[in-house]
Amino acid sequence: MGFQGIGTWEILLILIVVLIVLGPRRLPEIGRTLGRAIRAIKKASTDLTTTITREVEETKNEPPSQSKETKTKEAPSAINKASAPGQDDQSTKPEGHQQRNE
Questions:
Q1: Mean of the pLDDT values across residues 34-53?
Q2: What pLDDT, on a 0 to 100 scale, did the predictor assign at position 51?
Q3: Is the pLDDT of residue 37 over 70?
Q4: Would you list the domain boundaries of the chain?
Q5: Residue 87 contacts by C-beta under 8 Å, 6 or more apart in sequence?
Q6: Torsion sign over Cα 57, 60, 61, 65
Q7: CA 14 to CA 80: how far, in whole Å?
Q8: Could you please report the per-residue DSSP string of 49-75?
Q9: The overall pTM is greater than 0.85
Q10: CA-CA distance, 28 to 20, in Å (whole number)?
Q11: Residue 76 has pLDDT above 90, yes or no
């Protein structure tokens, strides 16, 4: 067996057909272009693998965050507090209009 289930004779036949169709002058140019494309794909794949591995390692090293249930319970109360009429929340007022507690 040859490459990916293709025998030696099949590979040789494909190369001969490509040589006839493209010609001997264009074949090196196409080979270079194909080589650059494969190299760029390998580099992108390696970079992606490295980035994902780094992110996973950083996630493992971080302290555990709040659970999902805690976050969903806190979110509605924060929304209700900010939208409740008549409450003086200094964080929602413009900077020049803050009240001073003396």
A1: 96
A2: 96
A3: yes
A4: 24-60
A5: 81
A6: positive
A7: 70
A8: HHHHHHHHHHHHHSPP---HHHHHHHH
A9: no
A10: 13
A11: no
SS3 state of residue 3: strand
Given this model, what pLDDT does residue 62 score?
A: 79
Of 29-33, 76-80, 81-85, the range with the highest mean pLDDT is: 29-33
Measured CA to CA, the distance from residue 22 to residue 88 in angstroms comes to: 78
Which residues fall within 8 angstroms of residue 51, CB to CB, at 6 or more apart? Answer: none
Q: Indicate the Cα dihedral angle 75, 77, 79, 80, nearest 10°.
A: 160
Torsion of CA 56, 58, 64, 69, to 10 degrees: -50
Amino acid symbol at 96: G
pLDDT at 47 over 60: yes
